[in-house]
């Protein structure tokens, strides 16, 4: 018996065909983006952590063996070239310092007064025939500067075979007793050399009391004043000079047989006042009656002979 089933209350009881995306029968539907995104979110946590730990290393390229060999060869060639150049320069220098073309044939020395040319040769250890290029100019200058009578010295090499030396000597101005022996001293009171027999020069005697060394600069001032004729005497008229605490700079004159005392404090002003008194005494022809004139502390005293 044939029975036909109908619909009940709007629902169809007819069976629905099952669809499967992996089947081949009917057209499969593609999963939505929402489903694909959800699949990624649903991946295991361990997989995501493993991927996060992955580190990308930089790509390193090692130089080839041929490039390294080329650079090493170039370095060796440069080293060999520099070594050969150094050897060549050294050989050339040795040849120049031995060739006769640069033999020392002329030595000129200027500025000598007390010293002789032979003395300069001995001090500088110079000999004719030596190679000019082999001479140590700084050593020669140092040797000359160490001589007590030399103030400054200059040395110039003139090729091919000459040497020019200029010397400025120290000028002795005073005689000083030092350690029981007489010494020459310059205008500032600095010792030069011991007095030797046969080379004695008559100069004013210099005495400096203990503690008055700080006033040695007055000697240079006195010399400048005498050279400029700003004193009533010249150094040739002086028998001795003394730096003392009580009287400052004392000067004993030979020709007038009189002593002049100039106070160390405000020395220029004291000298000016002394010049005024000296001029007045000479004008009145009374200098021969004077034994001592003292200019100190803005005052001038005149002591007559007894």
Shape: elongated
Query: What's the N-to-C terminus distance?
Result: 191 Å
Q: What is the structural class?
A: alpha/beta
Number of helices, counting only DSSP H or I runs of 4 residues or more: 7
Q: Which residues sit in consecutive blocks of at least 5 with pLDDT less than 50?
A: 1-43
- How helix-rich are the residues, as a percent range? 25-40%
- What is the mean pLDDT? 80
CATH architectural designation of the domain at 174-304: 3-Layer(aba) Sandwich
Strand order of the largest sheet: 6-5-4-7-8-9-10-11-12
Per the CATH scheme, the topology name of the domain at 174-304 is: Rossmann fold
Largest sheet: 9 strands, mixed
Q: Care to count the β-strands?
A: 12
- Kindly provide the name of the CATH class of the domain at 174-304: Alpha Beta
Taken as a percent bin, the fraction of beta residues is: 15-25%
The CATH superfamily of the domain at 174-304 bears the name: Cell division protein FtsQ/DivIB
Rg result: 54 Å
SSE sequence, one letter per element: HHHEHHEEEEEEHEEEHEE
């Amino acid at each position: 018996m044939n029975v036909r089933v109908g619909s009940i209350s709007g629902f169809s009881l007819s069976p629905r065909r099952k669809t499967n995306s992996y089947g081949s029968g009917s057209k499969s539907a593609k999963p939505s983006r929402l489903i694909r995104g959800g699949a990624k979110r649903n991946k295991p946590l361990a997989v995501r952590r493993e991927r996060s730990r992955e580190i990308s290393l930089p790509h390193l390229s090692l130089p080839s063996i041929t490039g390294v060999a080329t650079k090493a060869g170039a370095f060796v060639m440069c080293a060999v070239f520099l070594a050969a150049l150094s050897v060549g320069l050294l050989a050339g220098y040795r040849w120049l310092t031995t060739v006769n073309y640069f033999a020392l044939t002329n030595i000129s020395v200027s500025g000598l007064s007390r010293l002789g040319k032979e003395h300069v040769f001995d001090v500088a250890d110079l000999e004719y025939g030596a190679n000019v290029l082999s001479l140590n100019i700084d050593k020669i200058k140092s040797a000359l500067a160490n001589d007590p009578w030399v103030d400054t010295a200059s040395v110039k090499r003139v090729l091919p075979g000459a040497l020019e030396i200029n010397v400025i000597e120290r000028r002795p101005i005073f005689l000083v007793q030092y350690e029981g022996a007489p010494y020459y001293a310059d205008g500032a009171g600095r010792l030069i050399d011991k007095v030797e027999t046969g080379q004695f020069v008559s100069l004013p005697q210099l005495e400096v009391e203990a503690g008055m060394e700080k006033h040695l600069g007055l000697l240079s001032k006195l010399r400048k004043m005498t050279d400029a004729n700003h004193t009533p005497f010249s150094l040739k008229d002086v028998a001795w000079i003394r730096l003392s605490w009580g009287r400052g700079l004392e000067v004993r004159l030979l020709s007038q047989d009189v002593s002049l005392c100039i106070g160390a404090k405000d020395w220029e002003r004291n000298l000016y006042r002394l010049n005024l008194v000296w001029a007045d005494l000479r004008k009145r022809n009374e200098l021969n009656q004077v034994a001592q004139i003292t200019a100190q502390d803005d005052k001038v005293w005149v002591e007559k002979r007894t």
